[in-house]
């Protein structure tokens, strides 16, 4: 079969590989759609040895069941499913509580992270990773598994703070951010302020439900402050889907006293947190900072329900498998809007 693999650190290419056979408890999935996540670029850029090579990338997968391994019940050929990408150890404290996104195994197991992913015609996954998607388009189901699930989980962490009449700032309206805006619009009555450096991303934010858009630049904090008022007032929740120094500075510059910072983007920036009494604080008193990771299987089921109800729709640009390297080149160049989805 055809697969797009990281054959060496930083090298992505299409190769021919044997079609895998499902082991005991596993399912062979015919990949219908796989999202191109910005994290795949971080994987390609990671130091040698952090991720195995060769590795078929792609951790945002939806498809149809092709064959089942020994002992698999409840799934049969033709069933349509989304893949929950994390494969927790199953025995640590996080996994035992159903929070595999808090698995204490390093590195955490995952489809397209520790074993071959979905940028291929077929992928094998443990049957327990599959969730039914009904008649949802597979190009819609795939982005739900990460671009949808990750901001959903982050927003769930901040759920108590998202009261009607409060304000949430979403920074970075790409694959994750444009889903974050919709999740907020569908599940809360908060005022949504979207921030991005790209004009097309801001247009997308407006189309999917943002109430205000602010271009990222030197005066971003001032522009947001005009909307949320001066400190110690401010944004009740900030979801940073970029995570570079500039966006983290915006996040802490606009968050209210007692607010919440959700650092979703893995851009490598630093947020200074210095508890101090007699200076302008680095973050206001009572602020909480969370670093969410992906989400739980139960949350993915809820995200799929939002998708099936028509409340969460990825803005999708599709590419055939042989154009996957081009899709990632465009993603790196900031030329993908919404989510690039590869259809093998
Ligand atoms: P993306 O490339 O689709 O979107 C990024 C968006 O941020 C783009 O719209 C871009 O214009 C905007 N942007 C870039 N720099 C900016 C800046 N300085 N100011 C304002 N906007 C800026 O990426 P994505 O797939 O949505 O992923 C976003 C980040 O989230 C990545 O770092 C990714 O690795 C990370 N991620 C984290 C998790 C997690 O579990 N924490 C899961 C998935 C992805
Ligand atoms: Zn991802
Ligand atoms: Zn675990």
Automatic annotation (TrEMBL):
<dbReference type="GO" id="GO:0008270">
    <property type="term" value="F:zinc ion binding"/>
</dbReference>
<dbReference type="InterPro" id="IPR013149">
    <property type="entry name" value="ADH-like_C"/>
</dbReference>
<dbReference type="InterPro" id="IPR020843">
    <property type="entry name" value="ER"/>
</dbReference>
<dbReference type="Pfam" id="PF08240">
    <property type="entry name" value="ADH_N"/>
</dbReference>
<keyword id="KW-0862">Zinc</keyword>
<dbReference type="Pfam" id="PF00107">
    <property type="entry name" value="ADH_zinc_N"/>
</dbReference>
<dbReference type="InterPro" id="IPR011032">
    <property type="entry name" value="GroES-like_sf"/>
</dbReference>
<keyword id="KW-0479">Metal-binding</keyword>
<dbReference type="InterPro" id="IPR002328">
    <property type="entry name" value="ADH_Zn_CS"/>
</dbReference>
<protein>
    <recommendedName>
        <fullName>alcohol dehydrogenase</fullName>
        <ecNumber>1.1.1.1</ecNumber>
    </recommendedName>
</protein>
<feature type="domain" description="Enoyl reductase (ER)">
    <location>
        <begin position="10"/>
        <end position="342"/>
    </location>
</feature>
<comment type="similarity">
    <text>Belongs to the zinc-containing alcohol dehydrogenase family.</text>
</comment>
<dbReference type="InterPro" id="IPR036291">
    <property type="entry name" value="NAD(P)-bd_dom_sf"/>
</dbReference>
<dbReference type="GO" id="GO:0005737">
    <property type="term" value="C:cytoplasm"/>
</dbReference>
<dbReference type="GO" id="GO:0004022">
    <property type="term" value="F:alcohol dehydrogenase (NAD+) activity"/>
</dbReference>
<dbReference type="InterPro" id="IPR013154">
    <property type="entry name" value="ADH-like_N"/>
</dbReference>
<keyword id="KW-0560">Oxidoreductase</keyword>
């Amino acid at each position: 079969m055809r697969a797009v693999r990281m054959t060496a650190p930083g090298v992505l290419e299409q190769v021919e590989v044997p079609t895998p056979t499902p082991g005991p408890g596993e399912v062979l999935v015919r990949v219908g759609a796989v999202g191109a996540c910005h994290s795949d670029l971080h994987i390609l850029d990671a130091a040698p040895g952090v991720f195995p090579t060769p590795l078929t990338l792609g951790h945002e997968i939806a498809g149809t069941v092709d064959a089942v391994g020994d002992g698999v019940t409840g799934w049969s050929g033709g069933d349509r499913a989304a893949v929950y990408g994390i494969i927790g150890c199953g025995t640590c404290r996080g996994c035992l509580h159903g929070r595999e996104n808090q698995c204490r195994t390093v590195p955490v197991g995952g489809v397209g992270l520790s074993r071959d992913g979905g940028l291929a015609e077929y992928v094998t996954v443990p049957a327990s990773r599959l969730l039914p998607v009904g008649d949802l388009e597979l190009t819609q189901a795939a982005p739900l598994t990460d671009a949808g699930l990750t901001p959903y989980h982050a927003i769930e962490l901040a759920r108590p703070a998202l009261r009607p009449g409060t304000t949430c700032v979403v920074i970075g309206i790409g694959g994750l951010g444009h889903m974050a805006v919709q999740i907020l619009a569908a599940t809360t009555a908060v005022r949504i302020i979207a921030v991005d450096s790209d004009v097309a991303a801001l247009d997308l934010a407006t189309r999917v439900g943002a109430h205000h858009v602010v271009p990222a630049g030197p005066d971003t904090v001032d522009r947001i402050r005009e909307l949320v008022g001066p400190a110690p007032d401010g944004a009740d929740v900030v979801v940073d889907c970029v995570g570079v120094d500039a966006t983290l500075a915006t996040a802490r510059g606009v968050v209210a006293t007692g607010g919440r910072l959700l650092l979703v983007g893995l851009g490598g920036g630093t947020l200074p947190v210095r508890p101090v009494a007699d200076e302008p604080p680095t973050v206001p008193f009572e602020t909480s900072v969370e670093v969410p990771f992906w989400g739980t299987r139960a949350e993915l089921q809820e995200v799929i329900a939002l998708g099936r109800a028509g409340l969460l729709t990825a803005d999708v640009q599709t590419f055939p498998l042989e154009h996957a390297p081009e899709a990632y080149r465009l993603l790196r160049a900031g030329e993908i809007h919404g989510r690039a989805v590869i259809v093998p």
